[in-house]
Structure formats: C-alpha cells, structure tokens
Design brief:
Layout (H helix, E strand, L loop, with lengths): L2 H11 L6 H10 L9 H36 L1 H4 L2 H27 L12 H9 L7 H8 L1 H22 L4 H11 L2 H12 L4 H6 L6 H36 L10 H13 L1 H15 L1 H26 L5 H29 L6 H29 L4 H26 L7 H15 L10 H7 L5
Helix pairs in contact: 1-2, 3-5, 3-6, 3-7, 3-8, 3-9, 3-10, 3-12, 5-17, 6-7, 6-16, 7-14, 8-9, 8-13, 8-14, 12-13, 12-16, 12-17, 12-18, 13-16, 14-15, 14-16, 15-16, 15-18, 16-17, 17-18
C-alpha cells in the first residue's frame, strides 16, 4: 500500500474524521511545484540559506589576510610559533566537528537549525529549490550556495585592502582586529532569519523518526565515498589558493610593494570565482551537474599544466596582469566544475531523511582537504628552496594533477542528476527500505502527520 492510500485509510477509520483533512492530504502529497505557495514563499528559504554561506566565505577567507598582518607585526615570533598554524587549525577543526554534529541534528530535529552552521545551510537550500520551477533549480541552488561563498571570499580580500588603506601599515594591530570584527556582523543576521525560516515541505514529508544505520550505510556508502573524494580534492586546492593568495603573491609583486596592493591582488584573483560560479550555475541546468563538474575540472587541469610550463615567463613584476588573468581562469574553471556542483550533487544524490548526515560527512571531508592543503602548499613552496619559479610551479602542478584525477572519479562514480532528482531519490530510498522490511509510513514531522490525521507511532 503506498503512502497516499495509507493516509486515506487512516483518515477514514478515524473517529474524528474531518472532510478538511482530505484537502490536507491533497496538498501534502502533491508534487512540490504544485504546493500552494507564492513565489516569495518559495524563494525566501533559499535566500536565507545564502545569507549564511556568504558569512562562511568571508570568515574563512579573511583568515589569510589576518595571518599576513600578524606575520608583519610579530615577525619570526609569529611565523615560527604555533600561533600561525593554530589559527587556521582551530577554524577548520571547529567547522569539521560542526558539519558532523549538525548534520545529525538537522536530520533528527530540524532543518531550521542547519541555518546556523556553514555548509549545512545548503541542505535546506536544496530542499527549498525543489519547490521552484523545473529547469531552473540548479542555478538557484548555486546562486544561494557556492556563489555566496565566493562573494564572501572576494569581500574577505577587499575589506582588508580598504582597512589597511584607512589605518595605514603602522596600525596593523587595529587593522586585523577590525577585519575580524566585521566578520561577526553577517552571522548575527542569521538569528533573525532562523526565526522566520520554515521547514522545507520535502523535509516535513520525509523526516525519518527511526534510523536503520546498517541499511543506510549499505545503500549510500559508495556514493558518499565518491562525493567525499571529489570534495576533498577540490578544497585541497581551492581553499589553499584562496587563503594563501595574499602570501604567495609576494613572489610576484615587488618586495617594496605596499600591503594594500598585496590584498588588492588577492581580491582581483578571488573575483574570478564569481564569473566562474555564475557561468557554472547555468551550465549545471543545461548539461547537468555531473558533466558540468567533469568539463570544468578537466579544463582547469589543462590550464594549470599550461601555467606550470609558462611560469618562468610569468614570474616578472611587469607581467602581474597576465599572471592574475591566468590564475583567475584556473580558479574560475574550478567554480564551473566542482565548486558549483559538488554541493549540489551531495544534496541531490542523498535522500531527504539522511541528507544532513550525508552532506555533513562529505563536507567534512572537503574541510579536511582544505586543512591539509593549507599545510601542503607552504611545504611545496619551501621545498623549492630559493628557486622562485619552482615555488610557483609546484602548487599548480599538484593541483592540476588532482583536477584530472577528480574528473576520472566523477565520470566513473557519479550518476546522472535530473531536475527532479530530490523527489526521485526519496522514492528510490523508500522502495529500498520497504524491500528490507522498514515501515516508511512513519515518515514525516509531527506537525505534518497531525495535519494529515495520521496516528503517531
């Protein structure tokens, strides 16, 4: 017996049966696009999630500029101490723990709470975009997630540039504190947004109240492994380039260049993420997220290898513009590919009842990749010794090789993803559970089941 017939049976057998419940059944079992909501009601949750991810991008990106200022203030006392490594370590460790903890919490309790923890806001965004018009869902998911993170990274380089210009390089102690303080403003808005945010309809329908762990692992282990590997490799290079842009650009700029120019160059390079993310948002709808990811990361690898070979010609102060453009293209292609689509794939290739945990684990592996990358890149530069050309070549060579490997993993391990994948995946997971003896009639939030008149177990 399917869910709709089960609900109708429960209603008709109830002693306090109310004809109005039939309307509730029709509403809550209709396709998501037919749920009676206005355009603003459908788009508001996506906007709220995007606001949180902008904050995440800024806070992660500004750490690089702050680290550069601290190194100039304290010199060897900072660069040779544990403080330099402790700052990014604390940030990433806290994020990884948050992904895992709140991933479980969002599935067991509420999607509204996922608004308060970085990348898990994408879970709510994915389910909210499922209520939008077919053919446009991927782009709106990307505009609310990856594009917002990229915008946060751009602002995280622009703000230090302006702050240093305003305070002067003799007042860096004030400058780095101001940069961090400004990062506290966007998260405060989330407290209000969380109050206004309502649970996505798909979560209300499919919340799981009992979790058969072994069945879930058996069903999703391979898909989770593939997505985690791709996310790990992407963040390994993307976050490392972004966070250390203000540091390794010193090798290109004149040694006497003012600090604000250093930050300005980082801002210019980070800005290339935006057109890449924007283009990838549309390509994801047109050719699908799997192929958008594959082509984006393949082209990124090709450009990276080309830059590796031509780095000796780029390593001149007079050619900074060419260096910025090529590096920007390299980073933009990363956004066209995995930047835009890895979160989308993680959210749409997992079913609603366990999406928070699936997404949280994959995103945590992405953060581990970023964490390792922030250590590996400086070691690659140090390994080159005093050879400035090799200092630039090594990071691009490693990243480009990983790009090609990511494309292979995606081609072999990822299925095709359509516009209705969230609903399709939910039905596929339900059938699997039912075939293995799990009673899916218990699905749904408490208020959803009360509206339908289905007895709570």
């Amino acid at each position: 017996m399917d869910d709709k017939r089960l609900q109708e049976t429960n209603l008709s057998s109830s002693s306090d049966y109310n004809p109005n419940h039939e309307r509730n059944v029709a509403v809550h079992t209709a396709p998501l696009t037919e749920v009676p909501k206005g355009r603003w009601e459908r788009t508001w949750p996506t906007i709220a999630c995007g606001a949180g991810l902008f904050s995440d991008g800024y806070l992660n990106g500004v750490i690089g500029s702050v680290s550069t200022m601290l190194a100039l203030i304290y010199g060897d006392e900072y660069t040779k101490s544990s403080a330099k490594s402790a700052i990014p370590s604390i940030a990433f460790a806290g994020t990884v723990v948050g992904h895992l903890f709140f991933g479980v919490l969002s599935d067991h309790w509420s999607r509204r709470n996922s608004l308060l923890i970085s990348t898990l806001r994408s879970v709510g965004a994915a389910e909210s975009t499922g209520e939008l018009k077919s053919g446009h869902r991927n782009r709106w998911f990307i505009f609310a997630t990856d594009f917002q993170i990229d915008l946060g990274f751009v602002v995280s380089a622009f703000v230090p540039m302006i702050v240093v210009l305003a305070t002067g390089e003799n007042h860096l102690r004030a400058a780095w504190r101001i940069c961090l303080a400004l990062g506290a403003i966007p998260p405060l808005s989330l407290l209000y947004l969380r109050i206004k945010l309502r649970e996505p309809e798909q979560f209300r329908r499919n919340k799981m109240n009992r979790f058969p762990i072994l069945l879930i692992v058996k069903f999703y282990w391979w898909r989770l492994t593939v997505i985690s590997i791709i996310w790990f490799l992407y963040n390994f290079s993307a976050y490392s380039f972004g966070i250390f842009a203000s540091t390794w650009l010193v090798f290109i700029l004149p040694t006497d260049a003012p600090l604000w120019k250093n930050f300005g160059m980082a801002c210019a390079i980070n800005s290339f993420w935006l057109p890449g993310s924007f283009l990838g948002a549309f390509l994801s709808d047109w050719i699908g997220p799997k192929w958008c990811l594959i082509w984006g990361v393949l082209l990124q690898g090709i450009v990276g290898f080309a830059m590796t070979g031509a780095y000796s010609q780029l390593d001149e102060p007079s050619r900074v513009a060419g260096f910025i453009i090529l590096t920007g293209v390299f980073m933009a292609l990363g956004e066209v590919g995995p930047g835009d689509n890895i979160g989308l794939l993680a959210s749409k290739l997992s079913s609603t009842p366990i999406r928070g945990q699936f997404y949280g684990i994959a995103a945590a592996w992405g953060k581990v990749g970023a964490f390792i990358g922030t250590y590996i890149f400086p070691l690659l530069i140090d390994d080159a010794g005093t050879d400035i050309v090799k200092q630039g070549q090594y990071p691009f060579w490693v990243s480009s090789s990983l790009c090609i490997f990511s494309a292979i993993v995606a081609f072999v391990g990822l299925p095709k993803v359509g516009q209705d994948m969230i609903e399709v995946e939910d039905e596929r997971f339900k059938r699997y559970l039912e075939e293995n003896g799990y009673d899916t009639s218990s699905f749904g939030t408490k208020d959803f089941r009360e509206e339908l008149g289905v007895a709570m177990n």
